């Protein structure tokens, strides 16, 4: 009995040490990425702006005393504070319902960021897992999923999302589902191709020779070597998902009023461009700055993480 107990203890210790080594490797990679990103000032500025947007979304109730969904009709279409007739009680003015525009923009950041993060996160998980399985094992499952991916890629993303939302109906969770249903295919293609390349390398063959399980080889050996590409693609797709959410809300198929979504705010302000230009302008500027900052951050990550670009530089 004693040798068996010692064997179990040593096996558990090896598993714990293996997990600790994996986490330490991921942490070291993250620190290295941040250090290299600091050498790209434009991308770093984009990252700082993105962080500020996240903080604004989190602390929106602290930053404004007004409700984003209730207003005073007596104060409707009040201009920004620096214009004649404006008031610093409503720094960016009010909309056609008398609701504070600043409050709606701040709370709208929550919706845009949450939708973008959830849609991108689900797409990353689904696409990465399926891409690793299909790229590693191949076979009939790879053929079926790859043909389904080819079918999804035949449809433009926006038109496909419009069709999905027309079928499902407007709503937060339906919007997440519609964006994720097609969003995972890019991650699947990238991960599948890189796994097919990585699984033929010597370190994978050595892991197989040591008798490690396939799941452990995929997620502790191959995944850390391809996660950089997934990070870059995920960052760039985050901005795209935010634009898609705003587009669907603009068309009336996404987040519905009175919930503050930048797309629906821009759409409702179209009828007041002559006497209420701020209704569409300020939400549009907020959307532009956020997406531009995310793209700048993604481009910086691509320059930092792509080994071919690092070699050229």
Fraction of residues in H or I helices? over 70%
One letter per element, helices H and strands E, the order comes to HHHHHHHHHHHH
Sheet of most strands: none
Number of DSSP strands? 0
Number of helices: 12
The shape, in one word, is elongated
List the uncertain runs. Answer: 1-7, 309-313
- What is the rounded Rg? 24 Å
Strand content: under 5%
Mean pLDDT: 85
Distance between the termini: 60 Å
What is the structural class? mainly alpha
Q: Care to describe what's here?
A:
It is a single chain. The chain is mostly helical and 313 residues long. 75% of the residues lie in helices and 0% in strands. It is built from 12 helices and no strands. It has helices at 2-37, 41-58, 60-63, 101-137, 139-153, 157-168, 172-198, 202-209, 214-250, 262-268, 278-305, 307-312. The longest helix has 37 residues, at 101-137. It is elongated, with a radius of gyration of 24 Å.
SSE order and pairing:
Layout (H helix, E strand, L loop, with lengths): L1 H36 L3 H18 L1 H4 L37 H37 L1 H15 L3 H12 L3 H27 L3 H8 L4 H37 L11 H7 L9 H28 L1 H6 L1
Helix pairs in contact: 2-4, 2-11, 4-5, 4-7, 4-9, 5-7, 6-7, 7-9, 8-9, 9-10, 9-11, 10-11
Structural descriptors:
mainly alpha, 12 helices, disordered N terminus, single chain
A few lines on this structure:
This protein is an all-alpha fold. Helix content is 75%, strand content 0%.
């Amino acid at each position: 009995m004693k040798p068996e107990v010692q064997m179990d203890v040593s096996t558990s210790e090896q598993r714990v040490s293996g997990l600790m080594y994996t986490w330490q490797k991921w942490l070291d990679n993250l620190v290295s990425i941040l250090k290299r990103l600091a050498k790209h000032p434009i991308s770093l500025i984009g990252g700082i702006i993105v962080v500020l947007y996240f903080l604004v979304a989190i602390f929106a109730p602290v930053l404004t005393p007004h409700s984003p969904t209730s207003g005073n009709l007596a104060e409707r279409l009040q201009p920004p504070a620096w214009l004649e007739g404006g008031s610093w009680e409503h720094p960016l003015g009010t909309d056609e319902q008398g609701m504070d525009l600043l409050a709606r923009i701040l709370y709208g950041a929550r919706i845009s960021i949450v939708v973008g993060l959830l849609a991108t996160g689900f797409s990353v998980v689904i696409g990465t897992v399926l891409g690793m399985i299909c790229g590693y094992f191949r076979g009939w499952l790879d053929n079926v999923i790859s043909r389904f991916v080819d079918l999804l890629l035949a449809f433009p993303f926006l038109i496909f999302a419009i069709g999905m939302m027309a079928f499902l109906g407007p709503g937060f969770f339906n919007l997440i589902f519609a964006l994720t249903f097609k969003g995972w295919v890019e991650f699947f293609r990238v991960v599948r191709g890189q796994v097919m390349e990585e699984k033929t390398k010597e370190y994978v063959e050595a892991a197989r020779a040591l008798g490690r399980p396939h799941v452990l080889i995929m997620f502790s050996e191959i995944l850390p070597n391809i996660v950089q590409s997934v990070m870059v693609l995920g960052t760039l797709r985050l901005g795209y998902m935010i634009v898609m959410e705003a587009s669907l809300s603009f068309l009336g198929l996404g987040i519905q009023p009175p919930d503050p979504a930048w797309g629906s705010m821009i759409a409702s302000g179209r009828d007041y461009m002559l006497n209420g230009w701020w209704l569409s302008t300020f939400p549009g500027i907020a959307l532009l700055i956020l997406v531009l900052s995310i793209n700048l951050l993604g481009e910086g990550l691509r320059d930092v993480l792509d080994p071919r670009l690092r070699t050229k530089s």
